[in-house]
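Fig. S4 source data, part A: sequence.
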Amino acid sequence: MNSSDKVSPKTSLPLTDLIVPEFLLGLATAPLLVGLVGTKVVTQALRELGELSEEVFRGDRLPTLNFPSPADPHGDKSASP
């Protein structure tokens, strides 16, 4: 075999020095993605909570209250003869 048939590494770093950063990057990816998705979910939930509270304070979702009509301060003379 010729020496040209052998694959020579492009860097002189040992294999473990190349794998460790890639491994750490792979470990950091999952928590980062969970954090991004979690932030999006929490933001959406807070936005919906704010919209619901606006509806309550505006009164659209409150029940209609039937108040009795005010009594005549001089008495109701038309009802009794």
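Fig. S4 source data, part B ends here. The two ends are 130 Å apart (CA to CA).
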